[in-house]
Amino acid sequence: MKKEVLFVLLPDFADWEIAYIAAFLNFGLEPGRAKYTVKTLSLSKEPVVSIGGLKVLPDYSLEDAPSDYAGLILIGGMSWFTPETVKIVPFVQTAIDDNKIVAGICNASVFLAMHGFLNEVKHTSNGLEYLRQFAGTNYTGTANYLDKQVVSDHSIITASGLNPLEFSKAILAALEADTPEMIEKNYQRYKTGIWIP
């Protein structure tokens, strides 16, 4: 049976940040090789509309979310700065305590910083000054900030919102979704626009 990977979607989530990784996990890098199934999670089961106007009906709310899943992927968007997102903090903490893959891109990485999850791990975001501006006083991890497209450390993956393909590659590798060679080949295909057999 395929393990679930949960994608946390909030109103005005960034469509492009979920596109690669959801498809590669749910369908596989090649037909018939998918190890995972994608499920969506939000604050409630009400439809969530993306920045691009795509409407998603979440599979789970925080109240009925499973505890048995392989990874928790937080997709960026402006709603990560709203007060109700504090309800997600215990869910993220449990995932980290259980050594599950936890990944945040764009403003979802800022959310992780806001709640102290990045203070002791190497990480990145939309720039250090951006992170300092929005993360607040709970963020004390500036010494661990790396100016890179994506950073993986201790099962936590962070990326800038401009790097969804690199974010996808790091998550695929962390979840061992395919062989390292196939993950790299897939990345190069989409990065260069050249089909590599």
Overall description:
This protein has 197 residues and is of the alpha/beta class. It has one domain (3-192): Class I glutamine amidotransferase (GATase) domain (Rossmann fold), CATH 3.40.50.880. The chain is 31% helix and 18% strand. The strands form 2 sheets. It has a 7-stranded mixed sheet, with helices on both faces. The longest helix is centred in the first third of the chain and has 13 residues, at 15-27. It is globular, with a radius of gyration of 16 Å.
Topology:
Elements: E1 3-8, H1 15-27, E2 36-42, E3 48-49, E4 55-56, E5 60-61, E6 71-74, H2 89-97, E7 101-105, H3 107-114, H4 128-135, E8 150-153, E9 156-159, H5 164-174, H6 180-192
Parallel strand pairs: 1-2, 1-6, 2-5, 6-7, 7-9
Antiparallel strand pairs: 3-4, 8-9
Helix pairs in contact: 1-5, 5-6
What keywords describe this structure?
197 residues; alpha/beta; Rossmann fold; seven-stranded mixed β-sheet; two-stranded antiparallel ribbon; 9 strands
Number of helices: 6
CATH C-level category: Alpha Beta
Order of helices and strands: EHEEEEEHEHHEEHH
Shape type: globular
Low-confidence stretches: none
Question: How would you characterize the largest beta sheet?
Answer: 7 strands, mixed
Instruction: Compute the number of structural domains.
Output: 1
> What is the typical, i.e. mean, pLDDT?
97
CATH architecture: 3-Layer(aba) Sandwich
CATH topology: Rossmann fold
How do you describe this structure in short?
With about 200 residues, the chain is α/β, with parallel strands linked by helices. It has helices at about 15-25, 90-95, 105-115, 130-135, 165-175, 180-190; strands at about 5-10, 35-40, 50, 55, 60, 70-75, 100-105, 150-155, 155-160.
